[in-house]
Every structure is written in structure tokens, then in C-alpha cells.
Amino acid sequence: MRFKEIQKCPRTRAANCQCESISISEAQGDTIIAQCELEHSDTVKGNILCMQATSGGVTLIKGTITGLEPGEHGFHIHEYGDLSKGCESAGGHYNPDGVDHGNVEEGHVGDLGNITANESGVAEFSIKAERIDLMGDRSIIGRSFVVHSDVDDLGKGGDEESLKTGNAGDRLACGVIVLRGDDND
Ligand code: CU
Ligand code: ZN
Q1: What is the number of the ligand closest to the CA of 102?
Q2: How many CA atoms lie within 13 A of 4 on its CB side?
Q3: DSSP per residue over 90-124, as a string?
Q4: pLDDT tens digit string along 92-128?
Q5: Could you tell me if 136 and 119 are in contact, meaning their C-beta atoms sit under 8 angstroms apart?
Q6: What amino acid positions are annotated as catalytic residues?
Q7: pLDDT for the residue 2
Q8: Which strands form 171-176's sheet, in the order they lie side by side?
Q9: CA angle 129, 67, 12 (to 5 degrees)
């Protein structure tokens, strides 16, 4: 266990109570790494890694998701790590600033745009997310990734739903974001 002072965190509603306020004082090395394994689907599977320097800056989100329909799929960080009622209990997009839905550059902090599945239904992606933090008050640890059935219109759909969800459709699979290495503690 490299990270101490992990508290209970009602705001993320994560079952394992990892806190969004994480001390890096115990960090070994200069990178913090989080991971997520998607669940709640029989067909859609995936693993995602998030990496950020302990000094801050851009977070790199890399992953592979399989079992998708070919094409684009909305991909977000949702507010809660509560998957007790499947992906629905993950809440809405993580939106600490109370703004409208958008893309990886502006809008909800949790907006990551679309990932693209190839002919075989496999999406491999690498996203540079400048607004995503693994540490501090806005840490995404304990929140969740959700991949959707439809294309995210990035808030440009011209209707009310576009400004909330990007019309990305059903929640196909989801998973809680955890610090790497915490599984076996
Ligand atoms: Cu979503
Ligand atoms: Zn959004």
C-alpha cells in the first residue's frame, strides 16, 4: 500500500470507499496510476489505465474495450463509483463545475468524447486529458468509467439532452476507477 490517508468518501459512493482526496506523500516514484476493469456486461469487456505525474499535468488514459459495435461510442467518467444497481447508479457525467456537456477540452470534466471500435468491435484508445486529475479534490479515483451504445454528439446536437449526455445512449458497461495495486490490500 503506497498511499496513506485514504478516507471514506460519500461523494463517490464507491463500495471500497476510496477517497477522491488522496495524499501523495507516500508515493514511491513520480507517477500515480489508476486502473478500471469494465463490468455489468456479458459482451463488452475492457481494461483502462490512467497515469498522471505526481507533480500534476495531463492525465493519460489508455485502454482496450472489446465486444462493441463497430464505430464511435461515447466514453465518460461518471460521478459515482456506486454500481450496486448496475451502470445506472453511477450517476451523471462527473461535472464539478456545473456546466453543460462537451468534449475532452471543455464541458463536464468527465467528458472524454468518443472511442472508436474497429470492424472487430475492438476500441484501443489513448486520451490525453488535461482536465482529469488523479489526486486532490477533483480526483477521479472512486468514480467510474462508462462506455455507451451511441456516438456522443459532444454537446452539439442542438437539443436539451445533448447538453446533458451528448445523446450517447445506453450504458453498455462500466467500472470503478481504483488505484493500481489496491486490489489485493
Ligand atoms: Cu457516460
Ligand atoms: Zn458530459
Answers
A1: 2
A2: 3
A3: G-SB--TT------SSSSSTTEEEEEEE-TTS-EE
A4: 999 999 999 999 999 999 999 999 999 999 999 999 9
A5: no
A6: 76, 78, 93, 101, 108, 111, 148, 171
A7: 44
A8: 111-117, 71-78, 144-148, 171-176
A9: 45
